[in-house]
């Protein structure tokens, strides 16, 4: 994109705001460092919580960010929860989808925004990080995001947690509520309000903006960070809640529940000799076609090799 086009896009975005319907702003952003050519650093504030956010298109910066996670969470790597989200530029007049342009990862009070569409290369450390069977990547529509990452960039997300299905399970008081599955179809904004009682600004103008530009606007950075941050906060909150009283079984995804429901209905049909008609369940989730587990980063490679000797 030409420099004049980039400036025009950024000027257009400058008029946007993440405030919600005239309410007081719940988020803001400040620049920490924009002097480096390989990455920019921001502080994103959400309800006064500060999130250190790194934006980069360089594989070496992604390496450093991942190493810092392994270092700082070395005693908590088993079942480490990471909020994951993606952004891509929508095409309004074409049925084809643009490739994933931005990948966001968030845990604790740090966030990485990786501009895949502008990157010099996708580092092996990121392949290994996403493919780590000890990590749980949480999000809304997470399997769809994982499918896009694999199809567009051959990045395999090994373990996922669908927040809609988890919320439906944890917050349902009866099996009937779980079967209805209203929260299974809820978006991130609705889940943030219903589960965390937090507002999440999601202006359409920023969602539909150009995510392939080499320098994201401050508003785009803030928007991208908040999506991954709220995904992380939802996962931590829901996973720490007790299982509902209507079941002693461990939590199930919407897909698991639907498969079980279909099996029960099939057995009932055989017993009663009915026509086989059954009601629809709200808890539906299309399984994704993913590669077999195992590091796509190359045989013999390990994230441990990234540590300084």
From TrEMBL:
GO biological process terms on file: nucleobase-containing compound metabolic process
Keywords, sorted A to Z: Hydrolase, Nuclease
GO cellular component assignments: cytoplasm; nucleus
Signal peptide: none
One Pfam family hit: DNA_pol_A_exo1
GO MF terms, alphabetically ordered: 3'-5' exonuclease activity; nucleic acid binding
Chain positions covered by the region annotation Disordered: 265-309
InterPro entries linked to this entry: 3'-5'_exonuclease_dom, 3-5_Exonuclease_domain, RNaseH-like_sf, RNaseH_sf
Domain 3'-5' exonuclease: 76-240
PANTHER family: 3-5 EXONUCLEASE (PTHR13620), EMB|CAB82946.1-RELATED (PTHR13620:SF121)
Record's protein name: 3'-5' exonuclease domain-containing protein
Lineage of producing organism: Eukaryota, Viridiplantae, Streptophyta, Embryophyta, Tracheophyta
